[in-house]
Amino acid sequence: AQTVTQSQPEMSVQEAETVTLSCTYDTSESDYYLFWYKQPPSRQMILVIRQEAYKQQNATENRFSVNFQKAAKSFSLKISDSQLGDAAMYFCAYRLASGTYKYIFGTGTRLKVLA
Amino acid sequence: EAGVAQSPRYKIIEKRQSVAFWCNPISGHATLYWYQQILGQGPKLLIQFQNNGVVDDSQLPKDRFSAERLKGVDSTLKIQPAKLEDSAVYLCASSLPGQIQETQYFGPGTRLLVL
Fold first, then answer.
1. Which chain A residues contact residue B103 at CB under 8 A?
2. Which residues on neighbouring strands pair with residue B34, listed in sequence order?
3. Per-residue DSSP letters for A25-81?
4. What is the pLDDT along chain B (115 residues), one digit of tens a residue?
5. Whether A43 and B108 lie within 8 Å, measured CB to CB
6. Any B CB within 8 A of A103 CB
7. Interface test mutation site (partner B, options A44, A55, A61, A107, max chain B beta carbons within 10 A)
8. Which domains does chain A have, with CATH numbers?
9. Per-residue pLDDT tens digits of chain A, which is 115 residues long
10. Number of structural domains, chain B?
11. Does the CA dihedral B50-B55-B58-B63 come out positive or negative?
């Protein structure tokens, strides 16, 4: 069975600095997607960034980038130039590329941004 | 485009009472998900619909939880009777499967407190 592990319950970063959130996963499949979702306090969960497992190039979205290490089954999120609005719970998620499109989420990392 | 709608936003009930949640997905989205998110944890899939058929309900406590998606659009999730451990946020999400860039869109959630 696939599992997703986020070992950092909470992280803090100074405004304008860079922070990296960790995620590891376990799967025997070779074709899948990985996601980072952001859930601000009392607000909706939104997609931050997506990575296709067949792509070697790491995904980037403005200040957000990932370090995808397929062999190590590691998928970390780097947030550059952190802003106060980045404060939220961040969830790592996994989904097979075909089949039922079932998502498996990690337990989340709470990111605090210090002014 | 309009997002995923959920109601009510908050609900407080006593144990052994019944409660129902409603979800209206994004127009045209064939896949609908119900998640349970207990405080401090990541979302856990309860049930997944493809149009009006159930794709995955392996983690749905069927002795007390039920869900339906009539006509492949709106969906309701019911708990009867509720237990204290059902206190959680119930998230609905929808997606348009089959696309390379398939993405889940989440609703605001219904926060349930069982006393």
1. 47, 50
2. B47, B92
3. EE-S-SSEEEEEEEE-TTS--EEEEEEETT--SPPEETTEEEEEETTTTEEEEEE-S
4. 679 999 999 999 999 999 999 999 999 898 999 999 998 889 999 999 998 899 999 999 999 999 999 888 999 999 999 999 999 999 999 988 766 567 889 999 999 999 9
5. yes
6. yes
7. A44
8. 3-114 (2.60.40.10)
9. 789 999 999 999 999 999 999 999 999 988 899 999 999 987 889 999 999 998 889 999 999 999 999 999 999 999 999 999 999 999 999 998 777 778 899 999 999 999 9
10. 1
11. positive
What is the CATH classification number for the domain harbouring B106? 2.60.40.10
Q: Which residues from A are below 8 Å from B102, CB to CB?
A: 101
* Residues of chain B neighbouring A102 (CB-CB closer than 8 A): 45, 48, 55-56
Task: Tell me the two tokens of residue A96.
Answer: 């097979």
Q: Which two tokens stand for residue B80?
A: 């009867």
